[in-house]
Every structure is written in C-alpha cells, then in structure tokens.
C-alpha cells in the first residue's frame, strides 16, 4: 500500500523483508493445502461412504456414466462452501486491514484456519464438515486480503513481483503437499481425517510466524503512527536515507484521509481502469479451468480410467509441475514483465485445453476407459497446461491487483479483487461436476473460449507494471495506455485550466 520505491529510491533487499514475506506467504500454503486436499479426500471411498453414500454407490456401479459418477450438489458444496465463506469474510478483512493493519488481519486468518482444521478433522457428520470448511474460508478471505497487500507494501519495487509471487509459490507447494498426503493416506481407514488434519501444520506456522512480522510503514502512518512508520521503513529498507519514500507515503496518506468513502471513490471514473482490470483478472484466472484440475484432479483422472491410487499419483505429478513452474515466475516476472508471461501462457493453455478436449471427445465415451496411451497424453497435456498457468495467470492474478490501485482505493479495490476471485472459484467448484456430467468433453472447449478472451484482453488492454513504484502507477502505466488514458482526461483538462 505504500510507495514502495521506484528504481531511484534507496532500498536494499533486506533479510527482514524476505523473512516477513515468506512468513506471510504461508497464508498461501494454507490456501493451497485446502485447494489440494478436497479433491483427494472426495475420491476416498471411506470418506464417501461416511458422508456421501449416494456418490459412493454411483462410483462403484459398473454401468455408471464416466462423466456423471461424481455429480452431487452436496459433494460440490464440501469443496465450494470454503469460497462462499471467503467472499463474505473478505469484506470484513478489508475493513480490518484498513483499521487495524495487515499484521493483525494475518493473525486472525491463522486463528480461523485452526478452528476450521479442528472441526474438519473431528467431523462426525456432514454439517460439522461444512461448518469447518466455512471457518477455513474465513481464514482464506482474511489471508488473501492481507498477504498480497502486505508483501507489496514492504517490498522494494524492483523485487516486488518476485516476492509477491512467493504467495502463489506457497499456494502450489500447499497443493503438492496435499496431493502427497492424500496419496499415502488414501487406504487408511482414517485417511481423510489425517489429510484434513494435516492443515494444522501450515496454520500453526502462520499463527506463530505472524507474531514476528512487522507492520507495514504505510499502514502505521495511515493509522496515526508516523514515527513507528519511519523507523520501520528504515529497518526494512536497510538504509537511513528513506526521506523521499517517507514523504511520498505521508503525501498519499494525507490524500487518503480526505477520502471518507473509499468504495464510493472506487466507482469514480479515474478508478475504473484498475477496478475493471483487477476484477476481470480474477474471472479470467478461474475460467482458465485451473481449479477444475486443482480441486478435482483425482476425480478427473478416475473419470479417464485411472485407478484410485494412480489418479492420486497423477495429481501429485501435476502438483509438482505446478510448484516448479511457479519458480519460473519468481525469477522472471521482474525481468520479462507481466504482459509477456500472461500472453505466452494464454497461448500455451489454449493449445493444451483444445487438444485435451479433442482426445476425450474422440476416445472417452460413457462407460469405457480412456485407452492407456491417450491417458498418458492427457496427463502430459494437463501438466503442460498447469505449467503455463503457474508462471502467469496464477501468481499474476494476485500480484497485479495488489500493485495497481492508488492508496485511497487500495484496500477497497483489493477487496473487490479477492471477492471476485472467491465468487468465481465458488461458481466453478459448485458447478464443475454437474457441467462435466452434462457437457462431457465439451467442457474443455468452454474453457478454451475464455482463454481466447483472456489472450485478447492481455494484448490490448493490460499495461505493463514491471518496475513502477506503486504510487506512480497511474502516471506511468494507466495514463499512457492507448485505451485507459481517456479515463483521466477530465483530470488533465482541470490541470490545464488552472492559472
């Protein structure tokens, strides 16, 4: 939320910044673990037999349609309820960020995570399971609201992209860990309890680690602690000469104080470029189809004819690719830029989804298994798809909204981004198994259409934000863009009319 320093502002990449960023990013590990664990757990027979006996019966019915065996609204609610809670909680998280700071918001996220883990691991019935997922969703809403903002505010601008991608990197690590744990616990009579209870590890790390992180300078100054803000700024920058950056934070904070209704200000004409772009990035991120794979990878692989253990192992493979490919973003996003990664990956994902859909349409019918050689080709294509997403639309979907809003609308704007992400994650999680049943292989072409729209938007409407100080973003990115600059015309005309 601060002027995190352009190339001309003195700043080192200090150990303090790195450690705080990693600790905060463990909110992403928790998020990823929750994404990855649900798909594996919902494919476990012992879990289905206890909570979803109808699905268990359909799964083992010899003549059951391949595409419809997991179609159950309550089974989808187990996965999607988490994101419905995240939508509601992100509003409260936005207010908490603004009034009490990023640090306390992250601490509350860890508390909600721990409550949710206990309820899930000890669940005796479906509603106890769902309530636990709602608490986990509250943790995700608070964590996803605070963590990307926290990292963007404490990081020097030349390293902001790479450090912020640490959040998405740990999301992928969480998914990978969840897939590995599911693989080893799948045959245990209490395997689902072990898998769901395993979320306590990242939740505890975040809870303990959040006690050690600093509050961001901008948040301290905004909440009336300028001396602490200056001291913290010197500490995290590793230099004494921070006056220029400090003055910029003070200036923007004073402007921010004049804004009594940030959500109303977010609707102003000059805020539309950032608002539209951040909202659309969240829609696009979900409609790539990535969460179909992350939520339901074992289910999807079982649909294609893999046995239970093989489907869980395949999910581990895709999770490993996801983690390794995210490292590409960590080291390249501040070098090659955001637009290049988004455009290249959209082309890559489009090809992967189209060929996958074609193979399934041709060879996977209602009751047969996909021929083995084609199963491995589809597994390769899914890994190819995941790698493209992991170094582009995954991490950048969180990075770009965290860096494009000016101070006066930043928490409100990022709330909209988080809410849009959770709403459409909920929609996909709740609808996918039903869509798979009715659309069959055509569902992959549905996602292809969205990826094509994303590609056009990235080429035509997304300005490059690499290396630009957050508080200079309007002047150096949006006001110079061929389309979005028109939203600042009134501001330019007013400045020309002044004597």
TrEMBL record:
It is a multi-pass membrane protein. Its main location: membrane. GO terms for cellular component: membrane. It comes from Artemisia annua (Sweet wormwood). It is found in: Membrane. Residues 20-466 form the Major facilitator superfamily (MFS) profile domain. Keywords: Membrane, Sugar transport, Symport, Transmembrane, Transmembrane helix, Transport. Pfam families: Sugar_tr. Belongs to the major facilitator superfamily. Sugar transporter (TC 2.A.1.1) family. Belongs to the major facilitator superfamily. Phosphate:H(+) symporter (TC 2.A.1.9) family. This is Major facilitator superfamily protein.
